[in-house]
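seq/struct pair 1
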Amino acid sequence: MSISKTKVAVFFVMALLYSLQHCEYIYGEEEGRKDIINIVSDTMEADSDRKLITFSGNVVAREDFMVCSDRLYIHYTGRDEIKQMIAEGDVRIVQDKKGAKGDRAVYDRDERIMVITGSAEAIECGDVIRGDRITLYLDTDDVLVESGGNERVRATIMPEKKECKEVDAGEVLGCP
């Protein structure tokens, strides 16, 4: 009995979808885990040859941060581990009370670094920083904002942060 490549690919996609939809059950309910990802979108397409999954339309991905975008590409390894996520189109990232937005974001899962480009902007407690490229170091709260060409980094710093506890970056950025 021979199993076609298509049937294997369909089985793989179904298993991957099941694990993405039910990962808390699969991984357990350990506190503080950063390897669980839940993704919701209008459509999903998997290409097992390229080890690429594409989510399109109203994408919301949650790890220990949230990414909202028009499209999300997930590159995985031969062991089916996610190595990189690329969000494109109206990208918004929220982690705790911090947020960022831009046209494109690339997340390196091993390094836990997010690079946002294209009208990049970061916000926290009313402070806003704009540049051509913003690098978020998710485990250390460090941020690098870079400019290119003739443009310079622009920052608006709010002297009083009394409202910070009430500001929700997700609401400000329109990411649920």
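seq/struct pair 2
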Amino acid sequence: MNAARRLLVVDDHPLFREGLKAILGRDGRYRVAAEAGTAAEALRLAAETRPDIVLLDISLPDGSGLDVLRGLAASLPEARVLVVSMHARIDLIAESFRAGALGYIVKESAGPLLIQALDAVARGEQYLDGSLAPKVLLKLTEYAARRARTTDPAYGALTRREQQILRLLAEGRAAKDIAQMLFITRKTVENHRANIMSKLGLANLAELVRYAARLGLIDLESGEE
């Protein structure tokens, strides 16, 4: 039997730490090696205990968890970090991943998702709380729309939904998958696709992919062979 993975839990609320430990105790594959309530304590204990995984809150009394992330990336790069935060702000999520986090879940999801997220992070995979995905997708679409509208009036003439579906199609998503992601019917997706092709004067999916790549909505090498 493999040894339990050693965790450092960083959160300034003792009761929340106890809740996390209770969930972990029911699984047995993860063991809390140390707990910290501040950023400084987190970095000190990480250096002393060298945990496999760090459960990290963003809001700490003496600084930001982002600073802890950057410190861990420099001093303990082998440690994998799962952020468990009350914040669902897109900028914090993006900055957390840029600073080295492998996963991000909100505290209200910690009960049902903690072990699933830990398993993904333990495998070296990125994990994002599913409740955040629609917000992230919308933010990405809005950002892409702002960039594209400055270079192509035709793209700006598309509706926000059409812009969203254009990007997903260009990324190689099937109509049925897009329908599930956006909570609409497959027929609605197909109607949007026909409207997009007509408005942009595109003949097929390959032209759509090249168009999206030209605007910077996707990377050409990832969206097209």
